[in-house]
Amino acid sequence: MTRITIEQAAQYVGQRVVIPGWLYNLRKSGKIAFPILRDGTGIMQCVAVKSQLPEELFETIKDLTQESSIIVTGTVRAEPRAPGGYELDVENLEVVQRVPESDPYPITPKEHGIDFLLDHRHLWLRSRRQHAILRVRHEVVRAIRDYFDSHGFTLLDTPIFTPAACEGTTTLFEVNYFDDEKVYLTQSGQLYNEATAMAFGKVYTFGPTFRAERSKTRRHLTEFWMVEPEMAYATLEDVKQVAEELILHVVGRVLANRRRELETLGRNLEKLEAIQAPFPRISYDQAVEILKKKGSEIQWGGDFGGADETLLSEEFDRPVMVDRYPTAVKAFYMQPDPERPEVALGVDVLAPEGYGEIIGGGQRIHDLDLLLQRIREHNLPEEAFSWYIDLRKYGSVPHGGFGMGVERCVAWLCGLDHVRETIPFPRMLYRTRP
Ligand code: 4AD
Ligand code: MG
Is 0.85 topped by the overall pTM? Predict the structure, then answer.
């Protein structure tokens, strides 16, 4: 007999198959039981009819407990009314492990508080909603890789233990390395990307990054995944172009391949279908004007807070690109605008519907003297940056790139109000377990 997954059911209508999985839920009456099976690819209702099964087997099915592991044998039947479109008429059911009544599965169909659920994240992952979100995440990751792999970018993984800050010294996690040497968990692979870009032209790194921010917001994790492309001989405009193409590619792929999951999450698909080129492009100056009109306290020169980003993104039905922020509020490596050095050739992309910044990037300083000046102004240890400075001595060229946070992207695409559900095991200010 053929062993299949629930996702494959459509190809096996009328056939006898075996599906290994877990009992998601059970409805029953005297003569019929409906074990709801989940197998990691989907959820399927099974139908066990008393009159058609050995008595002992029917009793076993009726007494099944939530999340017991089971292997079901039966015939696939198309059932338009069933969630997923197919049902399984049960012929046999083997119990691999029965969850005892004395210690039942802790997450029941009733409502649980968020702390309880996060404490049981190792089990919560099995629920339908979490399953849908994390499948969208996988599709996002896959789409990102495919985009870069098919556009001439070479993947070059950058280190996680680093000797210096990339995004400011206040958000570094320090690690005791050997012999009292201090290293830090990376905040961004960008600086190393700049080195690999000079060797390979177009590169990207994709991995976990860390921020010791004491921010307890719906957008902050202390450990998150970021994809960072970097391109030699590139300007701010090139960076924006790639950012736009990448987002379009990711949205398109999620809509094409994960529509069912988005529906499970109750996502408004029209909002995602509206994501088309070109994205609006505005300057920081214009953004400040918009914000003031909308009642924000922002003054020229300040960085946008989460609330400002939300206000701004509500103005547009697609991601908005905001460029030329004040040099003073941005990282040390940002190239100043030659026409107007008080603003930097950086860009943030804000997702629509109030989801805030999903991409940050821009053009990097390529002039040796200016870079040295900035490293000093920012009180960064010149010693630790000597290799980075070398890049401005040996064949320096205009270059740029960006970082896109996977979790913020997934939160936006899934329509979630917090990033904590977008990663299998979130790490936040007050959460390092399980
Ligand atoms: O804007 P950020 O800090 O930019 C950089 O790190 C650059 N060095 C990237 C580059 O140019 N190569 O971070 C980039 C993105 C943000 O737009 C956001 O999507 C995400 O990373 N991000 C976070 N996501 C979750 N939790 C946090 N604490 C995040 N901080 C940044
Ligand atoms: Mg940023």
Answer: yes
